[in-house]
Design brief:
Length: 415
């Protein structure tokens, strides 16, 4: 791959191997799970590398531990980091394990659960800035002012080498490894894995996946040079890095075979599939590899094993709920209806009885008396029902219409 001019730094196998002992003392060797759903969909064997089950909930603990080990006795008076969440938790955990203080700068709108977890690991957290880039500036300034060691979330050789231990494990654990699919944000994870695999099994393809709304590596490839993007709101906030770094850009252009991007709906579908079918809680950034396979963005080799790295599982429950509701609606198991009924006693009861006799379960009902073109003796209601599937949703709607009610779907499940 040729993306453009970059630093000639290489992360050799020796550097990755050198971090292994330190990483193993803190991080877990995460399990591999066969993913039958994606395997059947693609016609290839697909295995999940479950870094979402890692300590602190993501792969980041590997790089943070490697960096603390590289600092050694010089790690005092402590470290300061910038992070959207996962690096923060990992750095806090690694610092506590090493017995040194840790300060963290996170965007003001960072995940509440990630901020709380970071504090729980003993770090001092500053919620400042609008983006990760803002936090990097603040953390670097803090380091200069205090003598703390700034630990970059990805643009650091020790961090990259620590993440590369995943590549070592994959080559050791899977005899017929053919492809590895890795989320791409700042690039520390995929470049570390790719360097390890290129050294041990160069025939294995490494594919990186970005969120389409924030894909600076793809943009850089198009213009043959590092390019910043505006970015946007994404479920994959953990990889919403707007500009490639010098170190990882160079490593990716030399060691990664392909970069693809996935949309928000694809990410949402992957999160739900992993939860429902694989019983794994995975954040948006961690699910992009599965999304790329499910959406046909990547064609895995017909022979051999394809591994999808699930990079993290730190998703806010407040975000998980609407993702699940969206899936239920699209699958026809959650139906939103608008109905006009006469404003007389018993009208609503008769409509709800009709739904109940059709086997639907009432979730919510709301009267809407204003803002609609209603007659004097008429009212509107907004109704949410649970149904079995699309066919059942349509049958419920048809039964209400056959009973004389003016009902129409707001969602498309019953159309």
């Amino acid at each position: 791959m040729t993306v453009g001019a970059s630093k000639p730094l290489e992360i050799g196998l020796e550097a990755i191997e050198a971090t292994r002992a330190a990483v193993q003392r803190v991080a877990l060797r995460t399990p591999l799970y066969d993913c039958r759903v994606i395997s059947e969909l693609t016609g290839s064997r697909v295995i999940l590398k479950t870094e979402n089950l890692q300590r602190t909930g993501s792969f980041k603990i590997r790089g943070a531990t490697a960096k603390l080990a590289a600092l050694g006795e010089g790690a005092w008076p402590g470290i300061v980091v910038a992070s959207a969440g996962n690096h923060a938790q990992a750095a806090a955990f690694a610092a506590r394990s090493a017995g040194v203080p840790c300060e963290v700068y996170m965007p003001a709108e960072a995940s509440i659960s990630k901020a709380d977890a970071t504090i729980g690991y003993g770090a001092s957290v500053h919620l400042e800035g609008d983006s990760l880039d803002d936090c990097v500036v603040l953390a670097e300034a803090r380091a200069l002012a205090t003598g703390l060691h700034f630990v970059h979330p990805f643009d650091d050789p020790a961090i990259v080498a620590g993440q590369g231990t995943i590549g070592l494990e994959l080559v050791e654990d899977i005899d017929d490894l053919a492809m590895v699919i890795v989320p791409l944000g700042g690039g520390g994870l995929v470049s570390g894995i790719a360097c390890a695999i290129d050294a041990l099994a160069p025939q294995v393809q490494v594919v990186a996946v970005q969120a389409a709304v924030c894909a600076p590596f793809l943009a850089s490839h198009e213009v043959a040079g590092p390019t910043a993007v505006t970015g946007g709101s994404t479920l994959a906030d953990g990889i919403a890095v707007k500009r490639p770094s010098g170190i990882t850009l160079g490593l990716i252009e030399r060691h990664v075979d392909e970069i693809v991007a996935v949309g928000e709906n694809e990410i949402a579908d992957a999160i739900v599939m992993l939860l429902m079918r694989s019983k794994l809680v995975v954040e948006g950034a961690g699910a992009v590899g599965a999304a790329a396979l499910m959406g046909g963005r990547i064609t895995p080799p017909a022979s051999g094993t394809t591994v999808v790295v699930l990079s993290g599982g730190n998703i806010d429950t407040g975000l998980l709920s609407p993702v699940i509701r969206r899936h239920e609606t699209n699958a026809g198991r959650r139906v939103v209806l608008f109905a006009r009924i006469t404003d007389r006693p018993g009208s609503l009861a008769r409509l709800l009885t009709c739904f109940g006799l059709s086997g639907a379960n009432l979730v919510t009902v709301e009267h809407l008396r204003e803002g609609y073109d209603l007659s004097v003796r008429e009212t509107a209601v907004h109704i949410v029902l649970e149904t079995r599937n699309r066919e059942h949703a349509k049958a419920v709607l048809d039964a209400a219409r056959d009973a004389g009610f003016d009902v129409r779907p707001v969602s498309h499940a019953a159309s």
